[in-house]
Sequence to fold (143 residues):
Amino acid sequence: MEASSIASALAGLDVTRVVDENPASVSDYGLDKPSVEVEFKSADGKPSGKLLIGSKTTTGGSLYARKNDEPKVVLIGEFNQATFNKSTFDLRDKAVLTFDREKVDGLDVTVGAASFELAKKDANWAVAKPIVARPTSQPRTDS
Fold:
């Protein structure tokens, strides 16, 4: 999910302004040692571009950046820092278990020595063991 949001953000990245078409040094913008470097690849796995994010501007609200090893330095919104600055932990799938929810019609839950079963009939879940209990209907609050 995180990778999809990064790809979407890259596709829709807005350049606020061009700061310098051909800077003598990118170190003034924090781009000699960027805080974030995003390399993107094409479907065949070949590198197709890169985004370097440097320092914040002195007035805040923007970040210095360079695209695709172009010489020009541009400004992008500071909110992009949080979007692109992800660790490998942020990007990995943290799901313990995946399954098709529509195909599940029962659950057996055991905690220590206690256990119970839930069963689904149509769209309703109910306790099946140790006792049988109907689902309670919720009172309507919209009048």
Notes: The chain has a mean pLDDT of 84.
